[in-house]
Specification:
The complex is a heterodimer of chains A (344) and B (503). Chain A is of the alpha/beta class. Chain A is 49% helix and 18% strand. Helices cover 71% and strands 9% of the residues of chain B. In chain B, helix 4 packs antiparallel against helix 5 and helix 6 packs parallel to helix 7. Chain B is rod-shaped. Chain B starts with a helix and ends in a 9-residue tail after the last strand. Chains A and B meet through helix 1, strand 1 and helix 3 of A and helix 2, strand 1, helix 5 and helix 6 of B.
Chain lengths: 344, 503
Amino acid sequence: MKKGTNKKMKMTVLIKIAMLLMAMAVITIASLIYFKMLVADTRDVKEQEYSQYTRHYAFIADNIENEFWEEVYQGAKRRGEETNVYLECFGSSAAVEYSKEELLKMAIAAKVDGIVLEADESAEILQLIDQAVGDQIPVVTVMTDSYGSKRQSFIGIGSYNLGREYGRQIIRVSTKETKKVLVIMDERMDDNGKNILCTGINETIYNEGNHLNLVIDTMEVSDKSTFGPEETIRKIFMKKEELPDIIVCLNEQATISACQAVVDYNLVGEVDIIGYHITDTIGNAIQRNLLAATIVVDSGQMGADSVDSLNEYIETGYVNDYVVMDVDSVTDNNVREYMENAAK
Amino acid sequence: MLQNRASRRKERYISIQTKLVLVFLVTTAIIFAVNMYMYINFNRMIKRIDGIYVSNANFNELQNGLNQVQVSMTEYLSTKSSDSMEEYFRSEERYSAMVRDLNDAVVENESMIMEKNIKGMSESYLELTGSIIEAKRGRNVERYKVLYEQASQLYSCINTYIYSLNNRQFQNNSKSYSALFSSMKYMEVINMAILCMVALLNVLLTIVLTRGITRPLKQLAEAANQVAEGNLEIEPAETESRDEVGVVTRAFNQMVLSLQGYIGRLKESMESESAMKEKELMMEAHLKDAQLKYLQAQINPHFLFNTLNAGAQLAMMEEAEKTYRYIQNVADFFRYNIKESRESVTLRQEIEIVDNYIYILNVRFSGEIHFRKHVDEELTDVLVPGMILQPIVENCINYGIRNIEWEGYIDLSVYREGDHICISIRDNGIGMSSEKIQKIMNSRLKETDLEQSSNGIGLDNVIGRLRLFFGMEEVMEITSAGENMGTEVAIFIPYEEKEKYYV
């Protein structure tokens, strides 16, 4: 009996000691692991393992902070990752802000494998594109083209299609009292494109809305100067007697500025705005009826297509000269759906 | 099987010395290992901290190299001196060597991509400067001016890029430095904690291991104490240890076991011996009992008295006066003999029985014995042990006057002498030697001598009873003047005025 209890006591003591040891070991190991994690944070850049890519493309756009271009970039980057391409938003890591031309020069000098470029009609860009192509660097322009350059492909919205979509929205919004329509053009757009866009709008109104008595006016805003577009749009609202009934905005920034101006000048319901692109702000504006409609293009798809074009050219030597993106319009009927999709 | 077990035990035998050495070695090894580990960790940390700003230094060097290329090229363009040209080629070579070490892989890291860009741009830049030098040599002024413009632009871009990268690295490095520094602090705490834990573990280990040595010793001492107190029925001391203590414990257990066995055997033999002694004593007692029974069976006093009374009555009826008196005397004598032999009686009774005895003897021996009494009647009420006078008188007759040629006389005198009563019995027989008197007085007569006396009561018996009765030594005096001069036996009893010894 005594022997039994003795043994039992011995066992409990042993168990206690074992538990103590276990606890000590666990604490030690846990703290060591934590320590290793701490030290791992301080690893040298070169010691770390990164996923490697076979190609390096540069993405160059005027206004990368713009939500539309951010989406284009993200779409392109995602597609790049899928196809083993590293897409660099060129110049974003430098301490100095460079112009598009400088960035293009640097990209050429850095010998990247391909360039996705928001081009314009300037001669310098055209010359640089040709230099890049001469240095065996394929160039794909997005959204706006450099007409006449040796760029491999252009991913854009067909200006005529865009014009038709705007025309349809103008007709939808118009009433018999509606007279003046103001189209705010983007200065970067080439004249050809502007003409085609206007033709698209006019022809649509002529064909589908000939019961209306509309006067279509255009106005150019330049985003070359800082805050230029915003000020230009404000000016429209300052002259009340010349205030148009419908304002058509052809970019995201103009759309937001126009909406804000409508609210600021207390003109909600008096001026209808047809915008471009959809973001959270624009979506909310539609829901609050500040915006009659917005024309959207799948920006992510646009970026993806640009990377695909570069890949295709590098791999096969051939690529479509022109890739047209579909456009769609968002009104208060389908805005919720769009917002939900975007959130996903 | 047993052998197998024993061999196994032998295999597992670990001496205390080995145990202690093991404890020491294990604890030391643990401490050493932990210290080693910490030392290595610390060293690694310090090395890492040392290396943190190396990348910054490298980029500064790169920038300097680029600067030198640009400066020397510009100098060559403005002076066309061979010195500046040499300088240009040296710096160009150095810079291209530096550029060669830069990353050119496309990886998911902005710094690395920046490095790649710097590398690409630098290579383009160097190509450009090469062309510029060529153009300068070829005096192609237009071309080298245009190229110089481009090169300068590129130079500033590269410079900015290096600067940006350097800045980014510096931020990174600062972050790393502070992280390392804080982890150094953390490690200090961990190290202290681990050291404390290991110390605790060592203490525990030492306690556990040394308790394995001391506990059996304590148990053994306890068991030994119990044995010292005489408790041999203890449980054998437990032991599982395979060291010297285990050996001692097992030897102790063996010792206790053999002690138990030994004491058991001793007890058994003692028990059998005492049983035998008891048996012997019992046998003796039974023998005595048998002797007594036998003696008692021999005498049936009532039958004897009745027979004698019947004889007396018969004699009376036949008017044989003498016969009647004789038989009556014999009966009285034996009755007294049986009844009064051990009780205290008066001196008068004692004298009467002596009278009876003399009468009987005188009938037997035709009046040969002359018995004379000189008794102070006032003293005859004193109490004395029964049957003291008759044996003395018998003695006088048997050894004193039986075989003498002359007339035998026996004188009985009772008188007072000081504070004593003296009872004197004197004969005129053959007397007694002084040796024999001495023997009688010292009660050293053999049993056989006593048994020969007529009633089984010898003189020493009388003396003994007198001594016991009166509680004094000097109760009898035997005197004899010599051969044929007779013997006097005097009994002294204390005289006390009608008190204790009087009826």
